[in-house]
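Session log. Operator J.P. requested a structure for one protein chain; no other inputs attached. Running the standard single-chain path with token output.
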Amino acid sequence: MSIDYLVIEGNIGAGKTTLATMLSADLNSRLILEGFSDNPFLPKFYSDPAKYSFPLELSFLAERYSQLKTDLANRDLFHELTITDYYFMKSLIFAQNTLAPDEYNLYRKFFDIIYERLPKPDLYVYLHLSENQLIENIRSRGRDYEQSIAPDYLKTIREGYFNFFSQQTSFPVLILDTSNIDFVKKETDYLLIKDSIFGRDYPNGISRVILNG
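Structure written below.
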């Protein structure tokens, strides 16, 4: 299977940006990272979700579309492979869990208009960890505005992703259970993930692999 456009995703704290960065450096690929750290609504959302969820999700929608439309449309002659640490559908998954029904219905109209205009990945990889492991990672990286995230919130996000996967048939979705490995500290575990991604062919729809270091 030839991979030109690879998506690495996962729940909050799953290590998607870390893995995407490691793979990009290893494979000399083009790397597109989500620019969320300077979003002014994000800290406000975690302190008052009801008030700031709609402007937060709209701002993410606009930023993700603008970035992907620009970066994916411009072919990079020096890099055959493009790796991103998010997929545009992420916008809808998070919005389902943060917006009130009337807000979500309005948001969905904007989303549907632009979703079909973006290219689909050759392979979508989801890094799966338990909520307890995610919380541990979130605490370790020490972002102040994330420390109030609860396991129940992470569970609803996971369920949103899995619901999306169950309906997805237009490209391969690989769910990698990384609960038993540490690809940051152990090179053998990193190589295990790399081989799982690039050393096998996956059909459209869901494939699952449990990794053991």
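Operator note: The domain at 5-212 is CATH 3.40.50.300 (Rossmann fold).
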